[in-house]
Amino acid sequence: MGEPTVDHAGLPSATDGEVSSARFWNAAQGGKDNYERDRQAVEAVEKMAPGITADARSARQFLRRTVRWAAAEAGVTQYLDLGAGLPLAPDIHHIVSRHQPDARVLYVDSDPVVLAHQSAYQDPPLSGYIDTDMRDTDTVLAHAAERFDLTQPVMLTFSSVLGHFSDDEAHAFIGRLLEPLAPGSCLMLSHDIPTPTIITACEVYSAAPGALPYQPRTIEQLQAFFEGMDLVEPGLVPLFEWRPDEATEVTEVMGYGAVGRIPA
């Protein structure tokens, strides 16, 4: 199969201002905290890669189902959301507090656009926000140690963000973040795989001024992140197949996700 032919005519130009990665995904998921240039970028990607907005919504639905499972069924009370992006209610703290009134949630992001909206994440003592790069694991873990009891399980969530990092980077900071966590702690990740639609979408999106390039990963590459962990049923599967509920959309298979647990 040859390389897809991409028409960039629908993308905002540099004179329109930069596209924000956070605002792009907010627009793709149906949020309101975005600009016209972000919506134009979403429309351009959807035109060339139909179904990409449904894939974005599916990732958000997966995040909500996994944290609900962790709170309601696994009894996890502590959540560290890496690369939180813009708030889009119900967010993690809204969901887990319904099942664990004493839950604690810490959102992490370094995007100035997200920082400007951090008040939606600040609901002390339930939730808080730190403005730092997830690769700065010393800072992230220092804040986690202040907010959490690290002798008890913590859930790490990476919702469609790891494609912005190389394999070496991602494995390094995930390993460092998992290292001090107690048995029963969870790693949740969702990630697009290299289907023709996703490859086209990544090319179109990456051409927009200011966009942060995203690289899909194979299923085998995603499995490597869970080495040494116990996968929660049904394992690493298309997003809509992970414990679907009435709100789950069935989409073209573009994204995969899983939850792994540190064994006792």
TrEMBL record:
It comes from Streptomyces alboflavus. It comes from the Bacteria. Transmembrane segments: none annotated. This is S-adenosyl methyltransferase. Pfam families: Methyltransf_19 (PF04672). InterPro entries: SAM-dependent_MTases_sf, SAM_dep_MeTrfase_SAV2177_type. The lineage of its organism: Bacteria, Bacillati, Actinomycetota, Actinomycetes, Kitasatosporales.
